Amino acid sequence: MMKRVHSLQFIVHRSQLIIYSILFFLSSVFCLLSSVCYAESISSTELIENARLYDGKEVTFQGEVIGDIMKRGNFSWVNISDEKNAVGVFLENSIGSNIIFTGDYDHRGDMVEVKGIFHRACRQHGGDLDIHADKITKLTNGYKVIHRADQKKVKAALWLMAILFCLTVVAIIKMQKDEKTQDKVI
């Protein structure tokens, strides 16, 4: 009887071990697949500081489209900023056609995700650091920025204008008095 209980416990432990092993294996495969399928975005600082590591490799970079879109035949240059640095991106006009807003003082540029080949010193473009984009995905639309005046500055300007007006009136009155006294003297 004792031998049979031990063999049953062994079977239970063995089946639990197999189930745990299968779960561990499946979760490992899931983690590996998810890291392959969803590339993590790299910061501009990471690209610049580790340019040799990423040179010639496919990268994913996110940021705001800034400046002008510079068209060169069937291709364009755009600058993408992640608020730390900007990276030049070279792309076919067709894949950049969904870019509407570029960031400047009056606009917030479209937020995009760029996937492409990183070059730390691109031979095709005079040794510049750039990304040759294979795909650009718009994450959010840009928009026009409305600049509001600082109310404290507006009040200060109005007070200064009132003081200037009062000083001008006083100066005019004083000039008129001086003219009358000069007329009496003559």
Structure, explained:
This protein has 186 residues and is of the alpha+beta class. It folds into 2 domains: 1-38; 44-144, Beta Barrel (OB fold (Dihydrolipoamide Acetyltransferase, E2P)), CATH 2.40.50.140. It has helices at 2-37, 44-49, 51-54, 151-185, and strands at 58-72, 75-81, 86-92, 107-108, 111-122, 128-140, 143-144. It has a 5-stranded mixed beta barrel. It is elongated and about 120 Å long. Residues 34-38 have low confidence and may be disordered.
Order of strands, main sheet, comes to 1-2-3-6-5
How many strand units?
Answer: 7
- Fill in the CATH topology of the largest domain: OB fold (Dihydrolipoamide Acetyltransferase, E2P)
Which spans have pLDDT < 50 for at least 5 consecutive residues?
Answer: 34-38
Work out the helicity level.
Answer: 40-55%
Series of secondary-structure elements, N-terminal to C-terminal: HHHEEEEEEEH
> Strand fraction band?
25-35%
User: What is the CATH domain class of the largest domain?
Assistant: Mainly Beta
CATH-assigned homologous superfamily of the largest domain: Nucleic acid-binding proteins
Shape: elongated
Topology:
Layout: H1 2-37, H2 44-49, H3 51-54, E1 58-72, E2 75-81, E3 86-92, E4 107-108, E5 111-122, E6 128-140, E7 143-144, H4 151-185
Parallel strand pairs: 3-6
Antiparallel strand pairs: 1-2, 1-5, 2-3, 4-7, 5-6
